[in-house]
Design goal:
- There is one protein chain.
- This protein is α/β, with parallel strands linked by helices.
- Helix content is 42%, strand content 15%.
- The chain has a single domain (13-358), classed as Rossmann fold (3-Layer(aba) Sandwich).
- It has helices spanning 22-33, 51-55, 57-60, 72-82, 96-101, 103-123, 159-177, 211-221, 240-255, 276-287, 312-318, 326-339, 345-358; strands at 13-17, 37-42, 63-66, 86-89, 129-133, 191-197, 199-201, 225-227, 233-238, 263-266, 273-275, 292-294.
- The protein has a seven-stranded parallel β-sheet, sandwiched between helices. The protein has a three-stranded mixed β-sheet with strand order 7-9-11. Strands 8-12 form a two-stranded parallel sheet.
- Helix 12 packs antiparallel against helix 13.
- The two termini are 14 Å apart.
- The model has no long low-confidence stretch (mean pLDDT 95).
- Bound molecules: nicotinamide-adenine-dinucleotide (NAD).
- Residues 18-24, 42-43, 68-70, 90-94, 109, 113, 133, 135, 197, 199-200, 207 line the site of nicotinamide-adenine-dinucleotide.
Length: 359
């Protein structure tokens, strides 16, 4: 595999929370291929069809740990045992609609879980870099036409979005109080950043109430695809786009610990921002079959209608930019779901990472 990080991850001890999930499984595969010693901490995968299960990545990495991030003591024990150097914190309850059903658990996992991980970082001398994954939904959504910038106010209407806004405030506080760049080398040696991706799509996601998994389930069952919010506008991006940004950022933080410990957006270019209906239409075209059905209801749960990210900071200061345009993105997403039943999934993921890196 091409190593765009020039051997940086080879031999590094990297702890990934949420490695059993959609983004975490891709992340673990990519880091493992780059030669990192990956320790994963997460709950059981949701289904036998998850990318984590089908790829078998759990058996390849250094440690595949099932543990709850709400358990602060356990987190500190894991960190003390494995002595990670870089931490990527992805574990979360990431679904807006589910957060209306389990708001307390959403807050416990997302907010206290994040604080527990920061406390484990604080207690573990080996950690040099912490990248905390929040979301584009952490911003106070004003349904505005411009993309959110990193210094826009945090907020959130539903429990998921607001829990991630609260995470951002906690991360900012921990950075000011315990990992302050001004005290680097004197009181601590940790560089801590937070990262906000758009609506991430890719193979192996089967989450409930997400558009791509909803489409694939309907296609596989030969049923029409129900579209709840056809007009909602989202910043769609392939899962490998933000992951490449997280890795590049961590490398920069390692090399310049006080220069990059901030918030960063890793969204798509403006032309990949489109409606739910448009993205589902493109997927159906890629499969050459399927029918969309508008099932929007006037009294549905509140979900943001318009959401975009401004990515000029990551472009200018990190030299990061999305690699795929809207069509290449959806093609690559469809590729996984067309092939996963007939091809060994680990090699399929490697093939897709290679494709992503060579467009
Ligand atoms: N998928 C997206 O579109 C998107 C967009 C922006 C941000 N994010 C963020 O990226 C991260 C990963 O999202 P995803 O789509 O891969 O979600 P996912 O649901 O597929 O994975 C979540 C992971 O977190 C773990 N987890 C959940 N609760 C836990 C707990 N209490 N203790 C330990 N582990 C726990 C799960 O086991 C799983 O490994 C989340 O923080 C999410 O908020 C996702």
């Amino acid at each position: 595999m091409i190593d765009i990080f020039k051997n940086f991850y080879r031999g590094k001890r990297v702890l990934v929370t949420g490695h059993t999930g959609f983004k975490g499984s891709w992340f673990s595969i990519w880091l493992h291929e780059l030669g990192a010693e990956v320790v994963g901490v997460g709950l059981e995968p949701y289904s036998e069809k998850d990318n984590f299960v089908l790829s078998g990545i759990g058996k390849k990495i250094k440690a595949d740990i099932r543990s709850d991030i709400r358990d602060e003591v356990k987190m500190k024990e894991i960190f003390a045992h494995y002595q990670p150097e870089i931490v990527f914190h992805l574990a979360a309850q990431p679904l807006v609609r589910l957060s209306y059903e389990i708001p307390v658990e959403t807050y416990q996992t997302n907010v206290m879980g994040t604080i527990n991980i920061m406390e484990a970082i604080r207690a573990t001398e080996s950690v040099k870099v912490g990248v905390m994954i929040t979301t584009d939904k952490c911003y106070d959504n004003k349904e505005q036409m411009r993309g959110y910038k990193e210094d826009d106010p945090f907020g959130g209407y539903d429990p998921y979005s607001s829990s991630k806004g609260a995470c951002e405030i906690a991360i900012q506080s921990w950075r000011r109080s315990f990992f302050n760049p001004e005290d680097y080398g004197k009181k601590h040696h940790v560089s801590l950043a937070s990262v906000r991706a758009g609506n991430v799509i890719g193979g192996g996601d089967w989450a409930k109430d997400r558009i791509i998994p909803d489409c694939i389930r309907a296609l596989e069952a030969g049923k029409p695809i129900d579209i709840r919010s056809p007009k909602a506008v989202r910043p769609w991006e392939h899962v490998l786009e933000p992951l490449s940004g997280y890795m590049l950022l961590a490398q920069k933080m390692w090399e310049h610990p006080t220069e990059y410990c901030e918030g960063w957006n890793f969204g798509p270019e403006a032309d990949a921002v489109s409606t739910v209906w448009e993205i589902a239409t493109k997927l159906v075209q890629c499969f050459g079959k399927g029918e969309l059905k508008d099932v929007s209801a006037p009294n549905a749960l509140h979900e943001a209608k318009l959401l975009m990210l401004d990515i000029s900071k990551a472009k200018t200061r990190l030299g990061w930019k999305p690699r795929l345009d809207a069509l290449q993105t959806i093609d690559l997403v469809a590729d996984w779901y067309k092939k996963y039943q007939n091809q060994e999934v680990y090699s399929l993921c490697i093939e897709e990472i290679d494709k992503f890196l060579t467009v």
